[in-house]
Design brief:
Layout (H helix, E strand, L loop, with lengths): L13 H12 L3 H20 L5 H8 L5 H12 L6 H12 L14 H17 L5 H33 L5 H13 L3 E6 L7 H20 L11 E4 L1 H4 L8 H22 L2 E4 L7 H12 L10 E6 L5 H15 L3 E6 L4 H11 L10 H16 L5 E6 L3 H10 L9 E5 L4 H11 L2 E8 L6 H12 L4 H5 L6 H4 L3 H4 L27 H11 L7 E3 L13 E5 L2 E9 L4 H10 L7 H17 L1 H12 L3 H20 L10 E5 L7 H12 L3 E5 L5 H14 L6 E3 L4 H9 L6 E5 L2 H14 L6 E4 L5 E4 L5 H13 L11 E5 H16 L19 H16 L3 E4 L12 E4 L14 E7 L4 H10 L5 E5 L3 H10 L4 E4 L30 H5 L6 H30 L1
Parallel strand pairs: 1-2, 1-8, 2-3, 3-4, 4-5, 5-6, 6-7, 7-8, 9-11, 12-13, 12-15, 13-14, 15-16, 17-18, 17-22, 18-21, 20-21, 22-23
Antiparallel strand pairs: 10-11, 19-20
Bound molecules: flavin-adenine dinucleotide.
Flavin-adenine dinucleotide (FAD) binds next to strand 4, strand 5, helix 15 and strand 7.
Length: 1013
């Protein structure tokens, strides 16, 4: 087991870590000056060199800061995988015609870049039909006649570009191409393109490809010296579809033997075998995999096992210490490749999204450079166990290593660079110093280049990057080579906790992939693992209460979660009589809601235990739900306007699928506007509601302003929504119930009383042939199956372009097979139960019918106990064939023809729902077209379609899916306040809204009945 520091991704103080690292470099002022001068000399020499590297030249002309650079990259990334002509043409037109290629003409020193510019400019001219008159018509004609020509020309250009970044499409061709550099004294580490396997089949394919490559590379080994032989670099994410902390046990059982097998093969050939470093949330897990592999006795005496360490991680030093100690303990020698790290943007974004207080990577580029120097020093001091490999294209970093390693022989370490990058610098150093240099060379089909290419562009496109600076002659050599210690200044990147400051604190997030956060969650929820909770009406006056009801755990029905005393009809009447608007000053209301948010956070353990045991939620869902509830409280508190007056008594009816977030959001919005709230939680989840409301009362909401009436819809819901004392209803639930409520309100309530309804949907997603299948599959799985498909936003109907359908569906089925169903208490569980026996029965009956009709494409197996429904894919001819919303892990799929995109959108719109919609495409025009055509509340592009965020991604549908302002949006609280002056207009608007909902709902239900008649 690895040491503890590796388990803590985020340091308490980045500044302290940097100060320690500066000390660890051991460089005094004189050393630093010497290094900077040496580096500046290198920069001048590189600039004077007659043969600039391709990456540098390319970035000089088409950096990520130009539209054309971005267009070119998008094209290079997507074109080669598009199989059909229609989509290829759409993609080419999308990327090439709007850009101004002319400005790049003749600029570059590279004939390759200039020739590409010519071709793209001409193509752009031809494709641009915007011009009126004869020229415009002529262009249109040329375009029509010339489409196949344009297609193949651009296709060839993209292949050529791919060739620049990939050494060869097969290992044999790569080795052949690499022979020239080998003759000049370089060695290679081959990297088989492709990573992040989605399915077991993909992982096995990658494993076989690695094995074949090792055999082939082995033939190129010249002797026993690992340093002189070529090697291979592997990514653990390619070898196992679920290489993630949540699947730790399976990873250790199944991934380790795969890696061991490959390592043995490499050991037999006497070559280097290197484990690439990936995202920080996998670091601790990677250490355990590495240790398990390294302990294999068959690897004794082989010095070729390599590990990459990323200097941008504050844990780099701890990782190196651990590797050294492990090598010592197992009596092994290791190679350690020190890099800066290639996932910086992803790491920063991920931690912000999770709402964490800091970052697992440094936030200042200079800190990474300092860390690199300090860790280089550390590695050089471990040469009895570790062969250091310094991978960098930065002249200052190279100069620092050369200085620090001066006393050592040049054979005791090596430099490394990426194929296509840093060529001149390493040529110069290699020639002048006699140091070794290895080239990391991607091998594989050009269409698999994406992830690699994007990382290269992101890291080199940044202004702070060395490659970017060296091509900019305006930056003096001395500046390019500035000592990072001298230049270091902390950089203020906003952490996740402060994203919404100063308005409000963001909800505190936890990283369930990090051991300390997991331990904290377990410590908090553990004591409630078997607690029997109790709930009853929370009223300003005494309640009578009905016969107690037992609430059981849907994953294990013999686990009794609690007991509920429901409200009676009499309780409803008494609560309505006791209800009083909350007349506290606006600032006080805000303070109380904020206090409630803090209390929620302090009660994490109870909430997580209840959300799992009562509602069947897995850990990531518990995390998301608690955070959303907290955000609702703070966001609505911040929306309180002193000019607002309450409407009066508002009824809030919430569903079981978000028993905390939606329950809280409705109430917090209504309370923010000063209303008296009468809340009815779902029958299935009164316990979590009881806890939440209790905390709101504890925070200071008066008992007359918040009363909770648990019970069934027929008793409590019906009594509440037909009482004339009620001034409005906020409802989330089924379209059918919304209809019933609408009718009751129309008959009994004042005409202006609003119904804010959030109902179901038949949510669709379109995946066209430009989409990246791995990304689309990841998002389809999350959209359709996360939370067992029990989100109103969940994907129900997937439209896949027929040209890619076979492959995509095969990958989708494989990705489903990697899902784990079980008790949601465990982190390893991906899919928990559905909410109750009735839901399970209903969904199973639906699937049985589809099975009888031979429409089931793929289905998993569900556990035998508990209310589990196995995720399933059902084929349908179109969304029109779907009888209704099936609220569970049932995904319908449809194949569509490229030319029928508009028809698909029409069909989806025709169903009348309008909640969420997903789109996977690389064509920007198409995104625009779809956004304009689709009548939905939330449209998601190239991501999953679940998971709205309060304040930044408000959520709400239109048509049959609901009405009213979006939850978590700027208008929500105002809508729950009494209409402001010009009341006549406002009342009319509301009446019109209500009439519109009524009409929509009536149409939808009538249509549904008709179809099912
Ligand atoms: C042989 C080889 C193998 C590699 N293998 C891996 C691998 O397994 N895993 C991996 O992740 N990378 C790997 N890399 C990629 C490597 O991380 C990048 O090439 C490297 O980061 C670029 O560093 P540089 O010294 O050449 O350039 P520089 O321009 O000096 O540094 C750029 C780097 O600085 C860091 N950075 C940028 N902005 C900031 C900021 N604001 N705060 C903190 N840090 C910042 C990033 O790490 C960025 O990549 C490998 C590189 C080589 C040459």
């Amino acid at each position: 087991m690895h040491n503890a520091p590796l388990n803590f991704p985020i340091p308490p103080s980045e500044a302290q870590v940097v100060a320690d690292l500066i000390a660890q470099t051991g460089l005094d002022a004189a050393d630093r000056a010497k290094i900077a001068a040496r580096a500046a000399g290198l920069v001048r020499d590189i600039r004077a060199s007659a043969k600039p590297g391709l990456m540098e030249v390319f970035l000089a002309e088409y950096g990520l800061s130009t539209d054309e650079g971005v267009a070119l990259m998008c094209l290079a990334e997507a074109l080669l995988r598009v199989p059909d002509a229609i989509t290829m043409d759409a993609l080419i037109e999308d990327k090439i015609s709007p850009s101004d290629w002319g400005v790049h003409l003749g600029h570059s020193a590279s004939p390759m870049v200039n020739a590409s510019t010519w071709a793209l400019m001409l193509t752009g001219r031809v494709l641009n039909e915007g011009e009126p008159g004869v020229t415009g018509h002529l262009r249109a004609a040329v375009k029509r006649l010339g489409e196949p020509v344009i297609r193949s020309a651009v296709g060839r250009a993209m292949k050529e570009m791919g060739r620049q970044f990939v050494l060869g499409e097969t290992i044999q061709s790569a080795m052949k191409r690499g022979a020239g550099m080998e003759a000049r004294g370089y060695t290679y580490s081959y990297d088989m393109l492709g990573e992040a396997a989605r399915t077991e089949q993909d992982a096995l394919r990658y494993q076989a490809a690695y094995a074949t490559a090792i055999e082939a590379i082995g033939l190129g080994c010249k002797g026993d010296d690992i340093r002189a032989n070529p090697g291979i670099s592997v990514k653990l994410s390619a070898l196992y579809a679920r290489y993630e902390e949540s699947q730790r046990e399976r990873v250790l059982q199944e991934l380790v033997p795969r890696v061991s097998k490959l390592a043995r093969l490499a050991a037999r050939r006497g070559m280097g075998f290197n484990i690439d470093a990936e995202e920080q949330d996998r670091l601790a897990l990677s250490a355990d995999v590495i240790e398990a592999v390294l302990a294999d006795p068959a690897l004794e005496g082989w010095d070729g096992f390599g590990v990459v360490v990323q200097a941008y991680g504050p844990r780099a030093g701890a990782m190196i210490d651990w590797l050294n100690a492990t090598a010592e303990r197992l009596d092994r020698k290791l190679m350690v490749r020190l890099v800066k790290g290639a996932y910086w943007d992803t790491e920063i974004k991920r931690t912000q999204v999770l709402g964490l207080a800091g970052f697992p990577v440094f936030t200042a580029k200079t800190a990474t450079d300092i860390s690199y120097m300090a860790n280089a020093r550390k590695l050089l001091g471990m040469s009895d166990r570790i062969y250091p490999q310094f991978a960098t294209h930065n002249a200052h970093t190279v100069a620092a290593v050369l200085e620090m390693a001066e006393a050592m022989g040049v054979d005791s370490y090596e430099f490394q660079r990426l194929h296509g990058m840093g060529e001149q610098m390493h040529d110069l150093v290699h020639a002048a110093e006699g140091t070794r240099c290895r080239i990391y060379a991607p091998v594989g089909a050009h269409r698999d280049l994406l992830a690699y290419l994007v990382r290269r562009l992101l890291e080199n496109g940044a202004n702070s990057s060395f490659v970017n600076q060296i091509v900019d002659e305006a930056v003096p050599a001395e500046v390019v080579a500035t000592c990072p210690i001298e230049a270091h200044k902390p950089r203020g990147i906003t952490p996740g906790t402060d994203l919404f400051a100063p308005e409000r604190a963001n909800s505190i997030g936890r990283d369930v992939m990090a051991a300390p956060d997991r331990a904290a969650i377990d410590a908090a929820r553990g004591p409630f693992r078997t607690t029997v909770f109790a709930a009853s009406p929370l009223m300003a006056v005494a309640h009578a209460g009905g016969a107690p009801v037992i609430i059981a755990n849907p994953a294990q029905p013999d686990d009794i979660v609690g007991q509920l005393v429901p409200a009676t009809g009499g309780d409803v009447a008494a609560a309505l009589a006791a209800a009083q608007v909350w007349d506290a000053a606006p600032a006080e209301r805000a303070a109380v809601l904020n206090e409630a948010a803090d209390l929620y956070e302090a009660n994490l353990g109870r909430f997580f235990a209840l959300l799992t045991r009562e509602a069947g939620k897995g850990l990531p869902d518990c995390e998301g739900e608690l955070r959303e509830a907290v955000d609702f409280l703070r966001y609505y508190a911040a929306r309180i306007d002193p000019a607002m007056t309450p409407r009066g008594r508002l009824v809030c009816i919430s569903p079981w699928n978000f028993p905390l977030a939606i329950f809280t959001g409705q109430i917090a919005g209504a309370l923010a506007a000063g209303n008296a709230v009468l809340a009815k939680p779902a029958e299935q989840t009164p316990l979590v509601a009881h806890l939440a409301a209790g905390l709101m009362l504890q925070a200071g909401v008066p008992a007359t302003a918040l009363q909770v009436l648990p019970g069934d819809g027929a008793t409590v819901g019906a009594a509440l929504t037909r009482d004339p004392r009620v001034d409005g209803v906020v409802f989330t639930g089924s379209t059918e119930t919304a209809m019933v409520i609408r009718r009751a309100m129309a008959e009994n309530l004042a005409p202006g009383a609003p119904l804010i309804a959030e109902t179901g949907g038949l949510n669709a997603m379109i995946v066209d042939s430009t989409a990246l299948p791995e990304q689309a599959v990841r998002d389809i799985v999350a959209s359709a199956f996360q939370s067992a498909g029990q989100r109103c936003s969940a994907l129900r109907c997937l439209y896949v372009q027929e040209d890619i359908a076979d492959n995509l569906l095969q990958m989708l089925c494989g990705a489903m097979d990697a899902l784990h169903l079980g008790d949601p208490w465990h982190l390893a569980t991906d899919i928990g139960p559905v909410i109750d026996a009735a839901a399970a029965q209903d969904i199973r009956a639906y699937v049985s019918q589809a099975r009888r009709e031979r429409r089931v494409l793929h289905e998993l197996r569900a556990p035998d106990t508990g209310f589990f429904v196995a995720p399933v894919i059902v084929e349908v001819g179109g969304i029109a064939d779907m009888p209704r919303e099936v609220f569970g892990p049932v995904l319908h799929v449809v194949r569509f023809k490229a030319r029928d995109l508009a028809k698909v959108m029409e069909a989806v719109n025709a169903r009348g729902y309008g909640l969420t919609f997903g789109l996977h495409t690389r064509i920007d025009n198409r995104v625009q077209e779809v956004v304009e055509a689709m009548r939905v509340g939330n449209l998601y592009v190239n991501r999953n379609q679940i998971g709205a965020v309060v304040g930044s991604q408000p959520f709400g549908g239109e048509g049959l899916s609901g009405t009213g302002p979006k939850a978590g949006g700027p208008d929500y609280v105002a809508r729950l306040a009494a209409p402001v002056p010009a009341p006549v207009v406002s009342d009319q608007t509301q009446a019109a809204d209500l009439a519109a909902v009524q009409a929509e709902l009536a149409k939808g239900v009538a249509g549904w009945r008709h179809r099912n008649a």
